[in-house]
């Protein structure tokens, strides 16, 4: 997978994901003291911008140049400073042991590539740093709504815990969220893992 298809998706409409942060980020990071944060696969930057607005020094990385350009424009409109990096997070290695918070939201890849990204994310954490991963759960195809329909790119809490053997797991579970559709409210099933690097 490369950024070309995502470039077209971002070009086809205004703000694919909206401007508000992901609800799980707002819940999990609200009480963390601001430091350095890394948003891997940041898209148009809504989560990175929310963190920057709360005093974090943020780096956002994504392989879609269109998404990064939009993120830069949104940051400028809001008067926020974010270091935007156009890079494929599968191969890109962020600086090691730098970030107090690393977030990875709804990145769905084959297992080997997912593990590579998780390894980079883990290595980027400073001592005491937090990693927060949210994605469509593997049970969502049969029991939930939306998201990828390819089992090979989905995962569950146990898969992510196995990917992160070097971290202390603070939370690993399936979570639900309501999605408004033309047919009414539907329930999506996500996986949420919060982990910490020991000090």
Shape assignment: globular
Helix percentage range? 25-40%
On the 0-100 scale, what is the average pLDDT? 92
Query: Which CATH-level-2 architecture?
Result: 3-Layer(aba) Sandwich
- Alpha-beta classification: alpha/beta
Count the strands? 7
Topology order in helix (H) and strand (E) letters: HHEHEHEEHEHHEE
Number of domains: 1
Poorly predicted runs are none
CATH superfamily: Vaccinia Virus protein VP39
Characteristic key phrases:
199 residues; Rossmann fold; 7-stranded mixed sheet
Give your account of this protein's structure:
With 199 residues, this protein is an alpha/beta fold. The chain has one domain: 3-Layer(aba) Sandwich (Rossmann fold), CATH 3.40.50.150. Strands 3-2-1-4-5-7-6 form a seven-stranded mixed sheet. The longest helix has 14 residues. It is globular and about 40 Å long.
Short synopsis of the structure:
The chain has helices at 3-11, 23-29, 46-53, 65-78, 111-124, 140-143, 157-163, and strands at 36-40, 57-62, 82-86, 99-105, 125-136, 168-181, 184-196. It is an alpha/beta fold and 199 residues long.
């Amino acid at each position: 997978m490369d950024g070309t298809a995502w470039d077209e998706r971002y070009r086809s409409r205004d703000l694919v994901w909206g401007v508000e942060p992901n609800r799980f980020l707002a819940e999990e990071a609200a009480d963390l003291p601001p430091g350095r944060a890394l948003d891997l696969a940041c898209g148009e930057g809504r989560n990175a911008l929310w963190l920057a607005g709360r005093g974090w020094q943020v780096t956002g990385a994504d392989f879609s140049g269109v998404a990064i350009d939009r993120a830069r424009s949104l940051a400028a409109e809001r008067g926020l400073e974010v270091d935007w990096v156009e890079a494929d997070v599968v191969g890109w290695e962020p600086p090691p042991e730098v970030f107090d918070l690393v977030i990875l939201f709804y990145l769905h890849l084959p297992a080997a590539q997912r593990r590579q990204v998780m390894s980079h994310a883990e290595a980027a954490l400073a001592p005491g740093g937090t990693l927060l991963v949210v994605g469509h759960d593997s049970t969502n195809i049969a029991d939930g709504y939306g998201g990828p329909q390819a089992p090979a790119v989905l995962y569950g809490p146990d898969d992510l815990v196995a990917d992160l053997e070097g971290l202390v797991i603070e939370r690993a579970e399936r979570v639900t969220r309501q999605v408004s559709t033309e047919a009414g409210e539907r329930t999506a099933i996500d996986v949420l893992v919060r982990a910490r690097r020991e000090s």
